[in-house]
Amino acid sequence: xxxxxxxxxxxxxxxxxxxxxxxxxxxxxxxxxxxxxxxxxxxxxxxxxxxxxxxxxxxxxxxxxxxxxxxxxxxxxxxxxxxxxxxxxxxxxxxxxxxxxxxxxxxxxxxxxxxxxxxxxxxxxxxxxxxxxxxxxxxxxxxxxxxxxxxxxxxxxxxxxxxxxxxxxxxxxxxxxxxxxxxxxxxxxxxxxxxxxxxxxxxxxxxxxxxxxxxxxxxxxxxxxxxxxxxxxxxx
Length: 236
What we know:
Blueprint: E1 2-5, E2 14-17, H1 20-29, E3 37-41, E4 46-55, E5 60-64, E6 68-69, E7 77-83, H2 88-100, E8 104-109, H3 121-138, E9 145-151, H4 152-157, E10 162-167, E11 186-190, H5 199-207, E12 211-214, H6 222-235
Parallel strand pairs: 1-3, 7-8, 7-11, 8-9, 10-11, 10-12
Antiparallel strand pairs: 2-5, 3-4, 4-5, 4-6
């Protein structure tokens, strides 16, 4: 079944007009015609069966059935601090974190972040579109929240639950298989940019209650480290 995103306000029984991005996806990418069956989801845990009724040049209309709840929550809520990355690497990380089921993605400005400039509202909105497309593809009923950019200090101060920061190498970090505790329902984690966290940033994180997490014996790319840490947190 083709899944199409609509806002929570749009998802209701009756006639619905899709937004520009989703209309383009239906008409130009999927090339659906009137009569095609689709599933609408609102990213907040509801879905509904629908039928395409009209496909125009710039809009698509659907006949939507009654919405139903589709709350499939992960084993725990994971809040992931993601460092700013260059180009499509940031898109890739957001896509994979969405597929994994991360509850929140917070963009981080770190000392070694590349690029140096914080993304504007258009860039953040693009990342939200990436998350919507990933959720549409993987069947996830709820969208992750995407916030920031925040400084590492601000992110650490707002952290709750079990707190971890990823280390690609190092003997002091805790082994992956030992974390988090099975009963932990909230995890806040962050991983560093290219080159990792500075010594000063490590001190700041530890002062805020973050513990080091060893992600393996090899040096990982920044986007890989974030995905590995999130996958481990959600796995058990």
